[in-house]
């Protein structure tokens, strides 16, 4: 069901219920008031008739009938009857000559017990009132047809019914109209999104000037488009750089083999060619392995084997592993105030990836230092572990700091050190995957300091 129709039905249903409640309440209270009014008037008439009947010497029955005919003019088909304690009729008046009430003795008995009983006889409403004094005990029955009151109640019912139907139609029509106006920005946003493609990610949705939910939605979608565009641009750069990095050793291998096969050569020449090809193959293998690691770190945490990891054990394993990569590389370790409980040194994550991230930063520090030395320090802060990696190397210019975590990016003056430009980008993605943060401070010619912050599993 379309959203516009759902909103219309919901709005119309709510208004319908409100109208039903209001109209029903008005009719119910009006009907109740009419009933109370006619009963009160009939009861007063019965009381008056009973008091007059106690003075038969002053008022004979003909005079009483004349009085009854001139009272309660708004009521129709009036009837008054009085019964003594034996159930005998002692007085009777009817507006119509042949209009006589037949009152059941049980009603008279109830009136003698309860004092006043209300009941209906046909279309008439009636009251039986028991009057008692030292001279007389009588039950007076007064009945009448409230034509005017019922007609007014019928008119009110018709007016309320017409108002209810009209209000319901207006509510549904208004709901349909205003829901269309309400959803118009959504349609415009959807139309703008439909016109945006991978080739036109630079287009954005018009957010409008009114500070409302639609503007918030537009801004949120624009932020999403910004992230998508950034991801697409990064992907394009990554593919271009990866293709270049992969094609370079492949081209070198192909060229060397092609030259070697053009004519017969001595065994020594073939050996030199094979050595060169072997170096290119190793380079290609390292690049492929790095790209695989990069792809793994670019996934999501749900696809990783997450388990408690002792961060101090990762730090302690660095010196031997880095020295194995290059015997000239050395790593010095330092530890701040370590907590007495082991749980404070545990983080949740993938041990292999975390070790790879820290090792990449440490290897970079050794690679770009003249003494090939990196200082690694572990500290505990509020709810997190802080790993600091410092070197006394060439440093990074300030204008290049914002690019160092991009894939295949290499600082201008670091070209002679080799590498693929994926180490820092890989480390950055791994740390982000573990809900951590990595910052860098550097001064050219003085060195660089990397700080890795990881949330502790204890909190």
TrEMBL record:
InterPro entries with a match to the protein in the record: HAMP_dom, HATPase_C_sf, HATPase_dom, His_kinase_dom, HisK_dim/P_dom, HisK_dim/P_sf, Sig_transdc_His_kin-like_C, TCS_sensor_his_kinase
Catalytic activity: ATP + protein L-histidine = ADP + protein N-phospho-L-histidine
Transmembrane spans: 6-29, 159-178
Domain Histidine kinase: 241-458
Key words of the record: Kinase, Membrane, Phosphoprotein, Transferase, Transmembrane, Transmembrane helix, Two-component regulatory system
Entry's Gene Ontology molecular function annotations: phosphorelay sensor kinase activity
Catalytic EC class: transferase
Domain HAMP: 180-233
Main location: membrane
Matching Gene3D superfamilies: 1.10.287.130, 6.10.340.10, Histidine kinase-like ATPase, C-terminal domain
Localization per Swiss-Prot or TrEMBL: Membrane
Gene Ontology cellular-component annotations: plasma membrane
Enzyme Commission code(s) on record: 2.7.13.3
Domain of life: Bacteria
Name of this protein: histidine kinase
Organism, scientific name: Paraflavitalea soli
